Amino acid sequence: MKQIRLFSGLFTVGFWTLASRILGFLREILLTAYIGPGPVMDAFVAAFRLPNMFRRFFAEGAFNAAFVPMFSKRLEGEENAEGFAQDAFNLLAAAVLALVGLAMVFMPGLVWLTAEGFYGDERFDMAVDYGYVVFPYILFMSLAALFSGVLNATGRFAAAAAAPVLLNIFACTALIAGALSGGEVIRWLITVIPIAGIAQLALVWVATERAGIRIRPGWPKLSPEMRQMVRIAVPAALAMGVTQVNLVVGQLVASKTEKAVSWLFAADRLYQLPLGVVGIAVGIVLLPDLSRRLRAGDKDGARNAYSRAGEFTLLLSLPSTVAFLIIPIPLVSVLFERGQFSAEDTAATALAVAVYGIGLPAFMLQKLLQPLFFAREDTRSPFRYAVVAMIVNAGLAFGLYPLVGWIAPAIAASVAGWAMVALLAIGARRFGEEARMDDRFKRRAWRIVAASAGMGVVLYAAMHLFGWAFQEPGWRYLALLILIVVAAVVYFALGHLLKAFELSEFKRALRRS
Prior knowledge:
With 513 residues, the protein is mostly helical. The protein has two domains: 6-437, no CATH class; 438-513, no CATH class. It has 18 helices and no strands. The longest helix has 39 residues, at 39-77. It starts with 5 loop residues before the first helix and ends with a helix.
């Protein structure tokens, strides 16, 4: 079996995802500065969520949950993996083209279903208008997800992980160009999104060709293999659909309060940074590795890969959670408070960041646990668990809104995230020893917790020491940098002293990535 270097892959995907998230922050900084929370930004968020919602439903979620394990096993067994990928490409292209056509016809209905609170004011018409322009993005990104799945299964992670960087480069360029030209900034932004999708598709398509796998458009056909893939994909699609229902429920509740959609969007972008770097990297690398090890009967190797991915998840999720709980206002003020983004917007967004921070480890652990099921082509169990999480999310979002207002969706999302983790962990017990953490993980886990807690104490003290600096516009950037550096040094020093990890492991992984 050709080995997939787990830590090297995690660092490669994590590096490019970090680059994408940093550029994404720049995009949101420009968006909040030039446009700011309000009707236009609310409308853009609702419109852009539509293709992203269906993209995760069709491509990154359901389709890859079925395609990647099946392709990986055929690749490992030398069973015409290229032909399988070709048939999958044609079937996916036909399905998404049909979806785009339907969306163009029923766009007002889609906006009403996902942001009913907009109806009757200017945000509704703007969201429909923007939706017509950005929705075709899903076609290019869905096909790009297939090529990314092929590359990931062959152990080539760089191009697929780098592709999202292009969207943020295009978007930042458009925002700056729109502002400098004196034109309507939002028009520049929405126009460039489908163009960026084409560029992303081209990048991974070329990389797949260079990997020796040739895929060309053709007529779709429902071969026995494709029927099997669809049977596996449908429960995963429903599971991902439930996840997207949770997002829509949050947006429906938030749309009743002006600016709330924008506040939650800004907070979402902040907590998505560690989630993207760690959680998504773990899911992308672990799924093909587990699939191929199980196909080869390497149960010990599967357990080792699962345990090391678990260490990597805890290693970065716990300190991120501590930071979001202790310094949300400094983070939000430095990143977003300028131009149209006011101090009031900072306070509201920081509250959402802290609440999402409580759920961050759960969102990451889901990315760790789900591959245990998907690698065995079990997509039905995660669907059932997701339905329970959806009920929890909807009940809390609507139930808490009269009591706590617009922050209810963030509370609901975090609680539902932990409910989903509990169900996945209980359900994975039936998979045997390879789905249980090894002794090394158990030794290191509590040490990671201790290092994170120690970092939190120092960060809290440093926040009070330098808190005055955040009231001075000229000092807040330096003050945040000092806080981050102090927290990182303390965390890695404590982690090394407590033997939560070995710094040499990072050096080896970086050399291989």
